[in-house]
Amino acid sequence: MLISEAAEAYADHLLRVRRLSENTVRAYRNDLGDLAAAAGDIELADVDIEVLRDWVWRASERGDARSTLARRTATARGFFAWATERGVIARDPALRLASPKRAQTLPKVATAETMSSVLDDLRVRAAEGDPLRLRDHAVLELLYATGIRVSELCGLDIDDIDRERRTVRVTGKGEKDRVVPVGGPAFDAAQAYLVRGRPVLAARATAGTAGARAVFLGSRGGRLTPRAVYATVSAELGPALGVDAVGPHTLRHSAATHLLDGGADLRAVQEILGHASLGTTQIYTHVSGERLAAAYRQAHPRA
Q1: 249 catalytic per annotation
Q2: Is 96 a catalytic residue?
Q3: What burial letters (b/e) apply to 126-163, b meaning 16+ CB within 10 Å?
Q4: pLDDT for 21-77, tens place per residue?
């Protein structure tokens, strides 16, 4: 079996058995496609540790980031472990494949003051009644208030909003559902959009448009796409942060950091964000710790 053929079988396993998202499986396919191209798409049984090391070395030489190299080596280890377990190959060549350590980078975070300014400006413009402005205000408020991922936001359906409890039910990675509380300003923005903005956008939908139950709609009535949300967030938040491009994940990072700054329990933040591991959430304690250290150095006479 060629590398490419085995990679397709592995991708099908990830999608159907492990129930990973299509985006995640696409990333695995891309990594293994790169391996197949670098190795000349040889028989899987002919791949040894030197082939794999050469693949990683070539990627390093062309300037791939350490995080990319680490992800690809992890992909290769998972792939060959699966192939060995299924009896596709007799011996796992990736057992001795070392992964380069990731350079831990702290996420970009907007201050609470910046977020307040941006959201207040959006609220004023949304008050004019334009459906897209009502939607964009609700989108940024909800992303910041809940810390949900952009894919989770775009996947929201009307039935996922509990108006009595002021919560939203989101489907996260691995098709796992969780319920996230929504603050007052975000809930009010969402309500204004649902009452005054969404019906206008829904009326623009053509027959067969896949947005009938979606909370957030595009200008033509279909379900709002992550790309459109990226563009909106970048346009609204980028100038406030002084950067050319910034994505929805900045709002997720900011929400987590501000929760911890305000005294929220780390495990509660883990539940809100939908992190499988507490270690993933702990990066935000480093951000908050830096702020605490900066405040100490500024305020203490013996700092």
Answers
A1: yes
A2: no
A3: beeeebbbbbbbbbbbbbbbbbbbbbbbbbbeeebbee
A4: 888 899 999 999 999 998 889 999 999 998 898 898 888 878 888 888 888 889 999
Sheet holding 161-162, edge to edge: 161-162, 167-171, 177-181
Considering the candidates 123, 223, 252, 258, report the single residue annotated as catalytic: 252
Find, among 36, 38, 53, the residue nearest to 96 by Cα. 53
Catalytic status, residue 284:
yes
Backbone phi, then psi, for 135, in 5-degree steps? -65, -50
252 is catalytic: yes
What does the pLDDT look like over 84-143, one tens digit per residue?
A: 999 999 999 998 888 776 555 556 788 899 999 999 999 999 999 999 999 999 999 999
Q: Give the Cα separation of 261 and 259 in Å (integer).
A: 5
**pLDDT tens digit sequence for 138-150:** 999 999 999 999 9
176 is catalytic: no
Tokens 């693949």, located at residue: 55
Q: Which of 77, 67, 35, 33 is nearest to 54 (CA)?
A: 35
Task: Please pick, among 149, 198, 223, 253, the residue that the annotation labels catalytic.
Answer: 149
What percent of the chain is predicted at pLDDT more than 90?
A: 51
